[in-house]
Design brief:
The chain is mainly α. Helices cover 48% and strands 7% of the residues. The chain has ten helices and three strands. It is globular, with a radius of gyration of 15 Å. The N and C termini lie far apart (53 Å).
């Protein structure tokens, strides 16, 4: 008998909004990397369930904005990529920004919900989300993302290839 799919395991062990891929799993979902991790990494906005053979969970309990904003798995993946930017991309930063901006403009990523969730995200993720929204021509939404301190903002934006 074959083991259940990754999606079924995640659905059974961590149901609800705000759950989605993390790390290379997130980058692969968004076509920012061709690498497929041996074990899927899944971020949950609560205490993480025990890992299974094919799925590892990572707790993002402090990021409850993901749940209250009702983020989809793809939107969680985008926030996870924005956090782990240098560690997960296989494409250039310019290509990654363009790809994510296209997803925002096509509404595959719901910008308004991501902005609502951003209040509980780390400073570098907020800085990169605001820059991404600006690159997508959504300046009004970028202005609603809570601004991190200037040093965090500079450090976060340097790998994106955009000015702080």
């Amino acid at each position: 008998m074959a083991p259940p799919s990754t999606e079924r395991l995640v659905e059974a062990l961590a149901p609800g909004p705000g759950v989605g891929p993390a790390g290379l799993s997130a980058a692969n979902l968004l076509h920012l990397s061709t690498q497929i991790p041996r074990r899927a990494l899944v971020a949950v906005p609560e205490r993480a369930p025990s890992d299974t053979g094919s799925v590892a969970f990572v707790s993002r309990a402090a990021r409850n904005g993901r749940t209250t904003a009702g983020l989809s798995a793809v939107e969680v993946a985008a926030l996870e990529v924005l956090e782990a930017w240098q560690n997960v991309l296989e494409v250039t930063p310019t290509e990654a920004v363009a790809r994510l901006a296209d997803l925002l403009r096509s509404e595959s990523l719901r910008a308004d919900r991501m902005v609502r969730a951003s209040a509980t995200e780390p400073g570098r993720t907020r800085a990169r989300l605001a820059a991404l929204l600006t690159a997508a021509g959504m300046d009004d939404l970028a202005d609603r993302v809570p601004t991190p301190d200037p040093r965090t903002r500079r450090q976060a934006l340097a790998p994106l290839g955009v000015e702080a």
